[in-house]
Every structure is written in C-alpha cells, then in structure tokens.
Specification:
The complex is a heterodimer of chains A (207) and B (366).
Chain A lengths: L1 H25 L4 H16 L2 H13 L6 H27 L2 H9 L4 H30 L2 H6 L6 H12 L11 H30 L1
Chain B lengths: L3 E10 L2 E11 L4 E5 L6 H9 L6 E6 L2 E2 L10 E4 L11 H5 L1 H5 L4 H14 L15 H14 L4 E5 L7 H17 L3 E6 L2 H7 L2 E6 L2 E6 L1 H6 L4 H6 L4 E9 L3 E5 L5 E5 L9 E6 L5 E4 L7 E11 L3 E8 L4 E7 L11 E5 L5 E5 L5 H5 L2
Parallel strand pairs in B: 3-8, 3-9, 6-7, 7-8
Antiparallel strand pairs in B: 1-2, 1-4, 4-5, 9-10, 11-12, 11-14, 12-13, 14-20, 15-19, 16-17, 16-19, 17-18
Helix pairs in contact in B: 4-5
The chains are: A mainly alpha (207), B alpha+beta (366).
Chain lengths: 207, 366
C-alpha cells in the first residue's frame, strides 16, 4: 500500500514538478510572480502535515464520490511537491540559458532542446528529487491520518499498533511490542538504504 | 550566403530603448561588425537577427525571406556565444554533430559534415574530449565548428573572443574571418573592441544608445568620422573647443585665451557657433622649440609614455588646452618633459563638429 502510493505520487510529482520548476527558474511570468510561486510551493514544508491533511479533507469532502485513495495521493503530492520542485529548479538555474539558445539556433525545436540538453544535464537532480518524494511519501503520517478512514499506509498502521500496545485502543490480535519493534526496524533499514542510494547518485551527478 | 536587412527595428526593455528605429543592410558574404560600448544595443540587434528575441516593431529579412516571426531553429543561422555554450554532457564530436542530428540528417552525412568542419577548425584529433577538458580557444573553435556543421549560412558572433587571452584572441579572430570567407558566409560580429572590429571587418556599424551612428569601412570611420563619438571611439582624438570667428571654406576658430587657428568647415557651421575640432594624435608633426608655421600650436611636454610602437606625448598648449601626440618610437629622437614644442596638424585631417548640446564629455562617454 505505502509503496504503490509512493510510486504514484513520485510519478505525478515528476510530471507536474518539472514544468513548475521551469516556470520558477526561468521566471516566465516575471520576477515577482516567480518568487510568489516559489513561496507558495514551499508552504507545505512549514505547515504541520496533519493540518494540511485536515484542510484537504474539508476542501474535498463537499464533492461526492471522490475516492479516499485519490485524496491520499493529493495530500502526499502537496507535501512532497516542494522537495522535488526545489531540487529541480535549483538544477535548472545552474544551466546556462546560452546552451538552450545555442541548441535552438542549431535547429532544435523547444521540446528537442528539453529532451537533449535540459533533461540529460538535470537527470541526477530529477532522480534525487524523485527519491526524496518517494521516501517522504512512504514515511508520511500526519496528513494520511487526517485524510483516510480505512486506508492504511505503513506509518498509519504503525501508529495503530503502537496505540494498541500501549492500551489506548483495544488490543489487536497478534500485535505485541516485539512485532512493532521489528516493523520499525525494517522501516529504518529501508530508509537507510534509500538515503545511501541517494547519496551515491548525487555524488555521481557532480562529476 | 544571404544578405541581412534590418528595417526600422525598435526594441524596448521597460522604458529603455535598446534599439531605437534601427535600419541596416549587411551584404551577402560580408564580414560585418557591430561595434559600440556596452549597452549600445549591439547584442540586442544580433539576438533579434538570430530570433532569440522578438522586435517590438520593424522587419528583419535574411535573404528574401522575412524572418522576424520565424523561430531561431528555422533561420539557417549559426550563433557563437561569448560563453561558448558548449553542451557539457557531450563530447566535442557530439557537440559538433548536434545540428545535423536534430535536423535529422542521415548518420553518414552527419559524420562527413562533422569531420569537414573539425578539419576546418583543426581539431580533428580532440573528438572525444569533453568541453571541460579543452582550452578556451579550443572550446570556441568547437563552438564555431558546431555552428557551421548545422548548415549556417549566416554566422552571428556575440563577442566570440571576449573570454580568450590576448594572444589566442588575435589568432582566432583571423581564423574565424578566413572560415567565413572560405565558406562564403555572411558574418555579423559583435564586439566592443575597436581594434578587433577594424582588423577583421569589411564594414563596421558604430552604435551608441540604441542607434547606429555611422556605417563604413575601417578606413572611412578612421579617416572621416561623422561625429565626435566616432572620432573618439575609433582610434583616439584630441578635442579643441572654440568658436567660429570667420566662417568660410577654411574657417578661423578662436580657442581658449584668444588663440586663433584654422580648420576646414565641411559642415558649414556659422560664425559665432561653438565648435569642437578633432585631431588624431598620430596625424600631427612635432618639433622642438617654438617657430612660426602654418596650422601650428605651441606647447610644453608634460608627460611621455613609451608604449612600444609609439611614444605618447602629453602636451600643455600655451592656451591651457591639453593635446596628445603619438610618434613612432624607433624613428625619431625623443622629446623630453618640459621642452617647448611646435605642433603642426594637417588641415584635411582635422575635423570640425558643432559643440554637442549635452556637452562634450557626455557626447563621447562610453
């Protein structure tokens, strides 16, 4: 559950994040709108994720038939979006605009320029941004708790288990302190591996 | 190979006119320079011709085709940047054949073209180097090769030598001109370096504050500047301020402290008008001592500078004006500081201009 959600959020994050990063870094609408966009995108970094989840829930609950899973994707997208856009727009700003213009004068259409110049130069930033999005999505708890009632991602499940062990909610069959500890251990190990991969990738990108 | 025409083009950035109703024709196969101080609009004009920016009004033609609405990739131009703008993630070879590739040439044809242009810039043995492994001169040669490989018929160069050291710069500027001539390209070269422009261009347009001040060959601009700005920007000039006391073909000009000298009055400026006489330092003769002669000025040497080819003398004229003279360093004996001298200037090489409305200093400011 957590991983498939993470994967969907990552893909959506890349698809929507790249255009936004271009808008911000190229100042398409001028300097002020770019700055405002940049700030707006960073809001979810500061607001507690549970608050974000609650407001999303309120916003969408008026519309009937919205699947809970979609809400969850929205929530995770909003929370992870700044990480991706920031890493991507920073990478875009490092590209010399002359290079894109040179490609145009050599006969490349704008999309070809993006494919042959921008994408290869920023690919490590895209990758590292994507990994951050994935890990944030997998570990996201607050907003998930607020948005969902019956969908359980790994962290939400953990919260439930911890509560059951501590006797806050009625005990769940088969859940004891050892199981919870093992589950936490697994998540920590998993995160460590992801971060290691991330570090290796970003180092390669600098060469 | 086509001629390039710019007709009544205006480009504004906010309230500032980067180009103010500029018209210009660059001939087929001409090596043309846009010369001027920074902020004069020369790069803006070049980028407009390339299609990297759009004009607010006016028309641009390359050959018979109107191109001001055509995207840069369809203009058959090559653009060479001051920053080289090589693609850092590609080898020299991949950079060079980028144009043929995105234009969907077949692989074999692309390869032939690639080798041809690399032969032209003499870099055939550095195919597999990445840009970061090449020197500045090599990078710029690759950038030129890349522009040529894409089939450019018009080569646009934006300060292409700006980031190279002096020696390399001199070498490459002739190399670029030779290539443009061999391939029968029309080349437009933007620079702020008048020596560079004069040494490689067939014709030069001198620009100032979004306008073209004068267009001509190096010789025309040097010998017959049409304004104080050109007289100052191309080469060097002494400026003597005064009033016309007798207007005629050969007029009398009263300088400071009542000193009267003669000059041709080609612009028919009227008696009583305030004027500036421009005289180039290397056109004058200078002899020790004071003696009466035609078209002469008296003064005292205040400073001498040995500049290699010439010795530069800074002289205080008897009426208080300052005057500079350059003399070949090898041929004549030097005049020492403090010595009295007589300067004679050739009438036909002294140019008389009306005193500029906003002052001389403002007029020649670069």
């Amino acid at each position: 559950m957590s991983y498939s959600l993470g994967a969907i959020v990552t893909v959506l994050g890349i698809l929507t994040g790249i255009p936004m990063a271009i808008l911000i870094s190229r100042k398409t609408f001028g300097k002020l709108p770019s700055t405002i966009l940049d700030l707006l995108i960073n809001v979810p970094l500061i607001v507690p994720s549970i608050a974000l989840g609650v407001s999303l829930k309120f916003f969408w609950q008026g519309i009937p038939g919205i699947p809970e899973f979609l809400l969850l994707v929205f929530a995770h997208l909003a929370i992870t979006y700044p990480y991706f856009v920031r890493s991507m727009s920073a990478a875009m700003e490092r590209i010399n605009v002359d290079m894109e213009e040179a490609a145009r004068t050599l006969g490349a259409r704008p999309f070809t320029v993006f494919k042959t110049i921008v994408l290869p130069i920023t690919k490590y930033s895209i990758l590292s941004g994507a990994i951050i999005v994935f890990t944030r999505s997998v570990s996201e708890t607050g907003a998930t708790l607020a948005v969902t009632s019956n969908l359980e991602t790994a962290p939400v499940l953990l919260v439930k288990w911890v509560n059951s062990v501590r006797g806050i909610i009625p005990p769940i069959a088969g859940v004891n302190a050892l199981n919870v500890g093992l589950a936490c251990g697994f998540l920590i190990l998993f995160s460590f591996v992801i971060l290691l991969v991330l570090r290796l990738l970003t180092r390669k990108g600098k060469v | 190979m086509p001629d390039v025409r710019v007709v009544n083009v205006t480009k504004k950035y906010g309230k500032l006119y980067a180009l103010d109703n500029v018209s210009l024709t660059i001939h087929d196969q001409e090596y043309f320079s846009l010369l001027g101080p920074s902020g004069c609009g020369k790069t803006t004009l070049l980028r407009l011709i390339a299609g990297l920016i759009e004009p607010d009004s006016g028309e641009i033609y390359i050959g018979d085709r109107r191109v001001d609405k055509v995207p840069p990739e369809d203009r058959d131009i090559g653009f060479v940047f001051q920053t080289f703008a090589l693609f850092p993630h590609m080898t020299a070879w991949s950079n060079v054949i980028y144009g043929p590739k995105v234009k969907n040439f077949d692989a074999k044809q692309a390869e032939t073209i690639g080798h041809e242009v690399l032969e032209l810039v003499k870099l055939n043995e550095r195919l597999n180097a990445y840009p970061s492994e090449l020197s500045g001169g090599m990078m710029q040669r690759i950038a030129v090769a890349r522009a040529l490989a894409a089939g450019a018929k018009t080569l646009l160069l934006d300060e292409p030598l700006g980031q190279l050291d002096a020696k390399v710069r001199n070498e490459i500027r002739y190399e670029i001109r030779r290539m443009a001539k061999d391939l029968k390209l029309t080349a437009i070269h933007v620079t702020h370096d008048q020596a560079e422009a004069m040494s490689i261009s067939d014709r030069i347009a001198v620009m100032k504050k979004g306008k073209i001040v004068q267009v001509g060959t190096s010789q025309e601009l040097y010998m017959h500047p049409n304004s104080l700005f050109v007289a100052h920007f191309i080469g060097e000039s002494n400026f003597l301020e005064g009033y016309i006391t007798r207007a005629n073909g050969q007029s009398d000009i009263e300088l400071r402290q009542g000193l009267v000298i003669k000059a041709f009055n080609e612009l028919n400026i009227k008696t009583g008008e305030r004027v500036v006489l421009a005289i180039r330092p290397e056109t004058c003769e200078m002899k020790k001592g004071h003696f009466e002669a035609e078209n002469s000025l008296f003064g005292k040497v205040e400073k001498t500078t040995f500049e290699g080819i010439v010795v530069r003398y800074e002289i205080r004229l008897d009426n208080g004006d300052r005057f500079v003279i350059n003399r070949p360093s090898l041929t004549e004996d030097w005049v020492k500081i403090g010595e009295d001298v007589t300067i004679t200037y050739p009438l036909d090489k002294a140019h008389l201009f009306p005193y500029p409305e906003n002052g001389l200093a403002e007029e020649i400011k670069v």
